[in-house]
């Protein structure tokens, strides 16, 4: 599948990249090759292939999540380590 310069410019704008014409041509060729390989993979018959989540042959051993309440001393000790509290909640700086 051959991509156009306009498609490469659009993709680069989504990635917040400012590409010059030389870089556009390089990425155009590389991305077109990658999409060609992906297209080849879509032609493989996988009807009789079982789904896998890993290549190892073992079962996952999972335990049930159990919620355990803390006693009052554990709560006070932990909240005492927080730099800032608001109504019993630990306050943190905004990340976004």
UniProtKB/TrEMBL annotation:
Any Pfam family matching the protein: GatC
EC identifiers of the protein: 6.3.5.-
Catalytic class of the enzyme: ligase
Superkingdom, taxonomy of origin: Bacteria
InterPro entries attached to this UniProt entry: Asp/Glu-ADT_sf_sub_c, GatC
GO molecular function: asparaginyl-tRNA synthase (glutamine-hydrolyzing) activity; ATP binding; glutaminyl-tRNA synthase (glutamine-hydrolyzing) activity
Keyword Methyltransferase among record annotations: no
Keywords: ATP-binding, Ligase, Nucleotide-binding, Protein biosynthesis
Reactions catalysed according to its record: L-glutamyl-tRNA(Gln) + L-glutamine + ATP + H2O = L-glutaminyl-tRNA(Gln) + L-glutamate + ADP + phosphate + H(+); L-aspartyl-tRNA(Asn) + L-glutamine + ATP + H2O = L-asparaginyl-tRNA(Asn) + L-glutamate + ADP + phosphate + 2 H(+)
Record's subunit section: Heterotrimer of A, B and C subunits.
Physiological role: Allows the formation of correctly charged Asn-tRNA(Asn) or Gln-tRNA(Gln) through the transamidation of misacylated Asp-tRNA(Asn) or Glu-tRNA(Gln) in organisms which lack either or both of asparaginyl-tRNA or glutaminyl-tRNA synthetases. The reaction takes place in the presence of glutamine and ATP through an activated phospho-Asp-tRNA(Asn) or phospho-Glu-tRNA(Gln).
Protein name, entry field: Aspartyl/glutamyl-tRNA(Asn/Gln) amidotransferase subunit C
Organism listed in the record: Candidatus Falkowbacteria bacterium RIFOXYD2_FULL_34_120
Name of the gene encoding the protein in the UniProt record: gatC
